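Q: Okay, next protein. This is UDP-N-acetylglucosamine 2-epimerase (non-hydrolyzing) from Clostridium sartagoforme. I've checked the sequence twice, so it should be correct. Can you predict the 3D structure?
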Amino acid sequence: MEKKKIITIFGTRPEAIKMAPLVKELEKREGIDSKVCVTAQHREMLDQVLGLFDIKPDFDLNIMKSKQTLTGITNKVLEGLEEVFANEKPDMILVHGDTTTTFSGALAAFYQQIKVGHVEAGLRTFDKYFPFPEEMNRKLTGSLADLHFAPTKGSKSNLLREGINEKEVFITGNTVIDAMLHTVKEDYVFENELLNKIDFKNKKVIMITAHRRENWGQGIENICDALNKVVEENEDVELVYLVHLNPVVKDVVNAKLGGKERIHLLPPLDTKETHNLMNKCFMVMTDSGGLQEEAPHLGKPVLVLRDVTERPEAVEYGTVKLVGTDIDKIVNSANTLINNEEEYLKMSKAANPYGDGFASKRIADIIENYFDLRKIEIEEFLR
């Protein structure tokens, strides 16, 4: 039996975290010749994940440069993948989620009539500018994909409403839950010594990330002002803010929160440190998409620092709450969770709608079925 060549493509740390367990699963399949191509849309943070999961890329486009633009990323990915695809002639490529690498990879494959599988397909806000450019990256990739691996029933419904053939859409759960089974340890000791000194048992430690493009400027300033208030009003609270390296974010955060008591500003941590910090913290405040899926798996309430989310299931299940960047709304919502145990337990005990740890296995099974490598009965994730 001739093996089918599958090239998995990703370029950022969030993509790498979610694609790593799938790469490892594909490596086990006898009928699949699994290859990995990284664009390095993000370089250092991507490499951390590759090391953690022991993944050695077969192709590295290494496109990252200072002050890169969306147009520049798109052009470089298209040109780099044109050569890779021409030489390798894969049977299918796999892309993930919503990055510029994702859309450009799908478009490059389309130009050479190569099949596309879209992992984490179907997430929508239905506003093309929020989040920007992620919403349109997802939608355009969905138009190019041949297999759609939707993490939830809601994301599948979104695809069907857009006219995608139901036979091409599968509910798999989210691969990030698979990844967390590998990274989270109850007896974990941090490599960052500052984190080892924090009293997670007796302090209410809030983990924060905020860096999305739509929050640049006034949004980040409001978030920082709100965080100052939360700390001032709650003596048992400490903040750990993982500050994005982009100067647009970093300069504002350092100016407003630097040197403040009970506020710890750290650079982005590697995946294992981040997941274990999340596991030990009291709650999470973020504008990240991935953390909205990861934190509920660990029973941590999430306040989402955005006005809309492409992950509405968590809102419906009650594991996350949208608070936007309004100072009073952020402060009031945080204080409620800090001081009202009933409200806290309501969020922390809610079921996580995003996965059971078997998403990667389902996706690999579906691919084998698609190419008639084996006949496997697929049990979709239907929480």
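A: Here is a summary of the prediction. The chain is about 45% helix and 15% strand. The CA atoms of residues 11 and 39 lie 5 Å apart.
Q: Noted. On to the next one.
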